[in-house]
Write a structure and sequence with these properties.
The chain has about 55 residues and is mostly helical. It has one domain. Helix 1 packs antiparallel against helix 2. This is Clathrin heavy chain linker domain-containing protein 1 isoform X1. It comes from Clarias magur.
């Protein structure tokens, strides 16, 4: 069972969904590192990375 941060209710995910979410997070982190994207604040590179990730 995965839990959301910020006090939200826990979310149940299947093993397949969990694997997909993990690979999606890894892709996003890898892309952010490669383009030296700042951790916080508005940034065009971060927008592009997330757009690409969720279009897959």
């Amino acid at each position: 069972m995965a839990e959301c941060k910020g006090g939200a209710e826990p979310v149940l995910v299947s093993a397949t969904d969990g694997s997909f979410i993990k690979s999606l997070k890894e892709f996003i982190e890898s892309e952010k590192e490669q383009v030296c994207c700042p951790d916080e604040g508005p940034d065009e590179q971060r927008y592009t990375i997330y757009s690409t990730a969720f279009d897959q």
